[in-house]
């Protein structure tokens, strides 16, 4: 992986899409990976989260606060973004409103929560598809949660109709 660490590799790869699963390295190395493609159009990022698989990688505090500056490296190019899991769901630290090319966004409700005040930062100017995975199983109580309640309905309404 040291091959990505040098400045000479920045913007040299013809890769247009990255799918990174069970990522166990550091934010610095992730940033080098994101900088490597000349134009990165699609990114799916899932770190190795200790809570979901029982162990973490070299870094175990993945959050939107950590990811935001890394994503901004390809802000002008990203068309599709998927983040299915993080250690911390601090969506108030995610701002995609300046990602003018972003058309597809996939996030789970476990990371977005249901605070409607966070929505304007999630909506990029050209967003066409928003895939919102709703958790329906509560692993702490081992019970089926309400699939889609009033909080979720209000959030979706606000997402698309600004209400």
Automatic annotation (TrEMBL):
This is Uncharacterized protein. It comes from Fusarium torreyae. It comes from the Eukaryota.
């Amino acid at each position: 992986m040291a091959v990505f660490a040098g400045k000479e590799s920045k913007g040299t790869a013809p890769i247009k899409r990255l799918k990174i699963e069970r990522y166990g390295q550091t934010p610095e190395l992730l940033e080098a990976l994101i900088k490597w493609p000349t134009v990165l159009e699609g990114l799916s990022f899932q770190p190795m989260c200790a809570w979901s698989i029982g162990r973490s990688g070299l870094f175990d505090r993945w959050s939107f606060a950590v990811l935001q500056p890394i994503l901004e490296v390809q802000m002008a190019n990203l068309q599709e973004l998927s983040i299915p899991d993080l250690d911390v769901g601090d969506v108030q630290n995610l701002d995609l409103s300046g990602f003018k090319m972003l058309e597809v966004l996939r996030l789970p409700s476990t990371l977005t929560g249901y605070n409607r005040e966070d929505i304007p930062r999630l909506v990029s100017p050209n967003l066409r598809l928003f895939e919102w995975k709703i958790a329906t199983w509560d692993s702490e109580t081992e019970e089926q949660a309400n699939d889609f309640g009033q909080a979720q309905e209000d959030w979706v309404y606000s997402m698309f109709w600004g209400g």
